[in-house]
Write a structure and sequence with these properties.
The complex is a heterodimer of chains A (328) and B (277). Chain A has three helices and 19 strands. Chain A starts with 16 loop residues before the first helix and ends with a helix. In chain A, a hairpin with a 2-residue loop joins strand 1 and strand 2. Helices cover 10% and strands 53% of the residues of chain A. Chain B has two domains: 186 residues, Rossmann fold, CATH 3.40.50; 64 residues, no CATH class. Classes of the chains: A mainly beta (328), B alpha/beta (277).
């Protein structure tokens, strides 16, 4: 492994660091991040532009190991057992040029009994042809808790392909909560692929929100294996598509152990010539497990719409408000 | 008396081949609480939706006049912008829309103080509820209060309240009644659909609806007496409305009390007064 980066302003001596950092911070802001938070000494941060770690800062209990790849970065993020990381860890990934490939190989290890929250922002504000590939593994130790919130901004051109593929293992009593949001600007193409194994008494909660315009393409694949006794799982998918955008949501929940409980909840709103598809798959391999699902796909609910019209909103305003609320 | 703010003339509505409203005539005045009483399925909510202009409730016959203007074919938005609004009996739930924002939707120009005041009027502290989502995490009673607050904040000319008391605990009925009276004092015409005595008694005028027709209009006490003596026995005998008037036993039961004749002659009311032509 090459240089392990532990210092704030890791590549500060690199030519062009200042301008690249400034551009990425602006991109970070556009993705919904708060740049000032990256400078706080009590906040752990990792900032990656294309294949360069621009900034890395650890706090007690958390360790970043990062090395550049030809087109990206390989990073291991370790949280020590029983560490309680008080402030959310800020992660920023981005590609500033109009074209490029960014590959992130990420490995998260959350030690037994640890508690940590991540706020990740991925921004590709100028993308005309950018690929963001992520391959990740996440291990949540016994009785540990990981909350991972990820927000993207892909600019207005629709020229981004985002292909995250993550395998998660949640050990006994662990809790894994993730929220993925891509609701501002265009999406381009997104294939969101998560597979989670939940052990005894583990809790998995996954929320995905996306708003597709133009010819955006959204694919959400979520598989949750409730393998442990009394494991619990919830997937919440909220997708809105308009113009000619297409959305496909595939969610699978397996109840494989006594007392396992799972629920899948999918709402998709379709406008114009857009197309939405939802394919829930329920598998129960134990007679004491239970998995349920609910899905609503179609235009905006008429009752909700009329309630807003009766306050004086016109139809476009009302539909927009309902969609913005749903994916908020 | 001033001119009616709302005048409904010979309104009829057929849905899925069944008459839902038949020759309804009604007038509502500014600053008046006009209650509408009737058995379940008698057409009360349908009349509310027709006044609001909801999809599927555009009348087959008759007119709806608001301040003298024919609004029968205006959209919901156009009616709302004229000052008509509706508090739904079962209000929609909105994921991700904060209560404060929802209550303020009809307030134009935006006025934060008025939103806070409206929430307080229904005993929902803005600090507690303002940022909560108006979604299924609210109880039925809380959601109903939010709906009332949204109507009050809007300061409409005509507020249609469809059973604002359902799902509200008995201790809070007084607050709801006070708010309704406050709206009337402020000049709002309130069209109140209710089953509760406490709210009926606070009305200035009560109309009784049966099988899609207004049978009676009068003071609250008279209306209650009429309802208990003429309507409740039919509920017990015939079950919930809408009744199938093509069945001989239904017609016979209604005829025995003179109701069938009234339904056949909707231009004349029980109190003998001619309805608006």
């Amino acid at each position: 492994m090459s240089a392990v980066v532990k210092l704030k302003h890791a590549s500060e001596d690199r030519p062009g660091w200042v301008s690249e950092m400034a551009a990425l911070l602006e991109a970070y802001r556009q993705a919904g991040g708060e740049p000032a938070a990256l400078q706080l000494p009590q906040v752990a941060t990792l900032v990656v532009s294309s294949n360069t770690v621009l900034m890395s800062h650890e706090v007690p209990g958390i360790h970043f190991d990062a090395e550049p790849l030809e087109n990206g970065v390989k990073a291991t993020i370790r949280v020590e057992p029983n560490a309680k990381i008080e402030h959310p860890v800020h992660l920023c990934f981005g590609v500033i040029p109009a074209e490029g490939v960014q590959k992130i190989l990420a490995n998260y290890e959350i030690g037994h009994g640890a508690e940590v929250r991540f706020l990740a922002h991925c921004s590709f504000p100028n993308a005309v042809r950018v690929q963001h590939l992520m391959e990740g593994t996440i291990y949540v130790g016994k009785n540990a808790s990981l909350t991972y919130t990820e927000e993207h901004f892909h600019g207005q051109m629709g020229g981004v392909e985002v292909l995250p593929r993550v395998k998660v293992s949640v050990d006994e009593g662990g809790r894994f909560t993730t929220t993925f949001v891509l609701t501002r600007g265009r999406i381009g193409k997104m294939v969101f692929d998560y597979e989670v194994e939940a052990g005894k008494c583990a809790v998995v909660e996954m929320t995905t929100k996306a708003y597709g315009h133009g010819d955006d393409e959204i694919v959400v694949k979520e598989v949750v294996h409730l393998n442990g006794e009394k494991a619990r799982g919830l997937t919440r998918t909220r997708v809105a598509v308009r113009d000619r955008a297409r959305s496909q949501v595939f969610t699978t929940m397996e109840g494989n152990a006594p007392g396992a409980r799972g629920h899948m909840d999918c709402t998709e709103i379709v406008r114009d010539q857009a197309v939405a598809q939802n394919t829930p798959l329920v598998i129960v391999r134990n007679d004491q497990a239970q998995v349920t699902h609910e899905a609503a796909i179609g235009s905006v609910n008429r009752k909700e719409l009329e309630a807003l019209l009766a306050r004086g909103l016109d139809e476009d305003e009302a539909v927009d408000l309902i969609i913005r609320g749903m994916i908020r | 008396m001033s001119e009616p703010i709302l005048r409904i003339e010979n309104l009829s509505l057929i849905r899925e081949g069944r008459p839902i409203l038949s020759n309804v005539n009604l007038e509502i005045y500014p600053g008046q609480v006009h209650a509408l009483l009737g058995l379940n399925g008698s057409g009360k909510s349908s009349l509310a939706y027709a006044i609001m202009g909801c999809e599927g409730y555009i009348p087959d016959e008759g007119r709806i006049l608001f301040e003298g203007r024919d609004i029968t074919h205006l959209s919901i938005t156009e009616r709302a912008r004229l000052g008509i609004t509706l508090a739904w009996q079962e209000p929609a739930r909105f994921e991700g829309i904060p209560v404060g924002k929802y209550v303020g939707l009809g307030v134009n120009p935006p006025n934060r103080e008025r939103v806070i005041q409206a929430l307080e009027a229904v005993a929902l502290p803005a600090k507690v509820y303002g940022y909560r989502s108006a979604d299924k995490t609210l109880s039925g009673g809380e959601r109903k209060r939010v709906e009332l607050a949204a109507v009050y904040a809007m300061r409409p000319r005509l507020a249609i309240l469809d059973e604002p008391d359902s799902g509200i605990d008995i201790l809070s009925l007084g607050e709801i009644a006070t708010l309704i009276r406050r709206m009337a004092i402020e000049g709002v015409a309130v069209f109140l659909i209710t089953h509760r005595d406490e709210l009926v008694e606070s009305a200035d005028l009560v109309s009784l609806m049966c099988a899609g027709t207004i049978l009676f209009s009068g003071k609250p006490l008279e209306a209650r007496r009429y309802f208990l003596s003429r309507c409740i026995p039919h509920l017990e005998a015939l079950g919930s409305q809408p009744w199938d008037l093509s069945k001989p036993e239904v017609r016979e039961a209604l005829a025995s009390n003179g109701l069938l004749q009234l339904m056949a002659q909707p231009g004349e009311r029980e109190d003998g007064k001619e309805q608006a032509a």
